[in-house]
């Protein structure tokens, strides 16, 4: 069915699992239908709303908290217990087996035929855990992509399509059971590895919170070593998801504005008297310096600056950029051949492991279209990669040479080595006043110029030497 015909036949789009990290192409597919849309998610996050340009979340969203869902007995409560054990897989398996048998013996789990999910760091740990658990008398299976050719019937590549057709009570995995498993018998999650992403942890716990009318009056169980801090992370989530204002796209905009308002109107910095930066004046006066390095691509026949602007704005939104100016979903300046975004990047301090402190930096993105070429620069390395891959192409050596004359002076190059030996440096940053004046070495011919930022797919590749 053609897209136009499909759109005409649909009056409402309902998107489940709306918590997925927003993707520009996904947004295009949904909004391209041009009809009413409902996004459903159990783990909301502040950038989920941005791609759909939802500015007023109080008007367009409904927030039903975890606490409310437990109170109304829609989902199970959660009880956390420590796995008292060393963190090697055999020790964790023995500790879990004891805790699991005790919980079953005392009817401490909500399901009458309870099952458990065990999380491991990789297929090797899964295989070890399954063997240890089966040796302890538990019916366990392991699920991982690497078990494609395993002769062990207890090690599976794919999740069983019908959980009722397997009698395994313990399912051990790395990624495969985080989402999509809908069986109320699962009542316990055990962590044999720390889950590095809290959102993934919440999604994993969600597999055991599904309530059933046959449930006992008991909570689901989370088992993890105290060193993993799983209970603290769960408690932080429960507190976070009651703070509805944090989901507002304007939240960080308010943070930036508050920071600016705390500054004096004028002060002396680095040898100059400087007035306070004014985001409201960006349309008339950008006040910023554009980075001197650019990414150059050849514009394809379907390249349009207005489409680039749309995709770039979405890309910045997915990266939690706080776009400054009169319109938070548009560049502050644009014309028929260029556009400029000035945005703030709000990150957590890299020195903090479990607490937060905002670090705010000002960033810019600029694009200029001239003579069939697209010139782009972004101080943080954010580019609309998918759009560029589809609508632009890399420059040939002859085309690139047009931009290099006798005044060209390379000062900084990152290189990767193509020599596959452990005794050879795999990469290096080369800096100098003029690298053309630096004598070549024997191995320079096998060095490949690497992009300075993580935009490999859309960079110009060239040999160095």
Topology, pairings included?
Layout: H1 3-9, E1 12-15, H2 24-31, E2 36-39, H3 57-60, H4 66-71, E3 78-82, H5 89-105, E4 115-119, H6 123-135, E5 140-143, E6 155-156, E7 170-173, E8 186-191, H7 198-206, E9 220-224, H8 230-240, H9 251-262, E10 266-269, E11 272-275, E12 295-299, H10 305-318, E13 321-323, E14 333-334, E15 338-348, E16 358-370, E17 373-378, H11 385-391, E18 392-393, H12 397-401, E19 412-417, E20 427-431, E21 447-450, E22 463-464
Parallel strand pairs: 1-2, 3-9, 4-7, 4-8, 5-6, 5-7, 8-9
Antiparallel strand pairs: 10-11, 12-17, 12-18, 13-15, 14-15, 15-16, 16-17, 19-20, 19-21, 21-22
Helix pairs in contact: 5-6
Report what the structure shows.
With 465 residues, this protein is α/β, with parallel strands linked by helices. It folds into 4 domains: 3-65, no CATH class; 75-240, 3-Layer(aba) Sandwich (Rossmann fold), CATH 3.40.50.300; 256-393, no CATH class; 412-464, no CATH class. The protein is 24% helix and 23% strand. It has 12 helices and 22 strands. It has helices at 3-9, 24-31, 57-60, 66-71, 89-105, 123-135, 198-206, 230-240, 251-262, 305-318, 385-391, 397-401; strands at residues 12-15, 36-39, 78-82, 115-119, 140-143, 155-156, 170-173, 186-191, 220-224, 266-269, 272-275, 295-299, 321-323, 333-334, 338-348, 358-370, 373-378, 392-393, 412-417, 427-431, 447-450, 463-464. The strands form 5 sheets. A 7-stranded parallel beta sheet has the order 3-9-8-4-7-5-6, with helices on one face. Strands 12, 13, 14, 15, 16, 17 and 18 form a 7-stranded antiparallel beta sheet that branches. A 4-stranded antiparallel beta sheet has the order 20-19-21-22, with no helix packed on it. A hairpin with a 3-residue loop joins strand 14 and strand 15 (338-348). The longest helix is centred in the N-terminal third of the chain and has 17 residues, at 89-105.
């Amino acid at each position: 069915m053609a897209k136009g015909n499909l759109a005409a036949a649909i009056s409402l789009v309902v998107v489940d699992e709306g918590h997925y990290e927003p993707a520009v192409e996904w947004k295009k597919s949904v909004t391209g239908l041009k009809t009413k849309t409902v996004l459903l998610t159990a783990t909301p996050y502040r950038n989920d709303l941005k791609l759909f340009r939802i500015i007023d979340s109080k008007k367009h969203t409904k927030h039903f908290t975890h606490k409310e869902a437990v109170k109304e007995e829609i989902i199970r409560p959660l009880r956390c217990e420590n796995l008292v054990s060393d963190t090697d897989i055999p020790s964790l398996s023995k500790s879990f087996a004891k805790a699991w048998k005790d919980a079953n013996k005392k009817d401490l789990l909500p399901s009458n035929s309870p099952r458990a999910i065990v999380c491991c760091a990789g297929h090797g740990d899964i295989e070890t855990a399954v063997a240890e658990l089966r040796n302890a008398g538990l019916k366990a299976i392991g699920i991982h992509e690497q078990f494609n050719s395993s002769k062990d019937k207890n090690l599976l590549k794919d999740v069983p399509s019908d959980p009722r057709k397997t009698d395994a009570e313990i399912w051990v995995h790395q990624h495969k059971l985080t989402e999509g498993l809908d069986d109320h018998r699962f009542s316990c999650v055990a962590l044999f590895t720390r889950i590095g992403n809290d959102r993934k942890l919440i999604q994993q716990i969600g597999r055991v919170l599904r309530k059933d009318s046959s449930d006992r009056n008991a909570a689901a169980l989370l088992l993890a070593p105290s060193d993993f801090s799983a209970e603290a992370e769960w408690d932080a989530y429960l507190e976070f998801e009651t703070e509805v204002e944090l989901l507002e796209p304007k939240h960080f905009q308010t943070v930036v504005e508050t920071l600016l308002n705390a500054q004096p109107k004028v002060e002396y910095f680095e040898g100059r008297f400087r007035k306070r930066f004014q985001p409201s004046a960006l349309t008339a006066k950008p006040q910023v310096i554009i980075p001197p390095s650019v990414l150059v691509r050849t514009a394809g026949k379907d390249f349009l600056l207005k489409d680039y602007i749309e995709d770039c704005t979405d890309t910045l939104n997915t990266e939690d950029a706080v776009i400054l100016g009169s319109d938070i979903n548009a560049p502050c300046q644009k014309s028929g051949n260029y556009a400029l975004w000035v945005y703030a990047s709000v990150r957590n301090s890299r020195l903090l492991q479990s607490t937060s402190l905002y670090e705010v930096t000002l960033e810019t993105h600029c694009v200029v279209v001239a003579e069939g070429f697209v010139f782009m620069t972004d101080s943080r390395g954010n580019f609309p990669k998918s759009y560029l891959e589809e609508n632009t192409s890399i420059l040939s050596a002859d085309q690139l040479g047009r931009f290099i004359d006798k005044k060209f002076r390379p000062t900084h190059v990152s290189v990767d080595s193509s020599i596959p030996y452990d005794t050879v440096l795999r990469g290096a940053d080369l800096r100098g006043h003029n690298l053309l004046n630096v004598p070549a070495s024997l191995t320079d011919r096998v060095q490949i110029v690497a992009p300075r930022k993580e935009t490999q797919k859309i960079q110009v590749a060239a040999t160095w030497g």
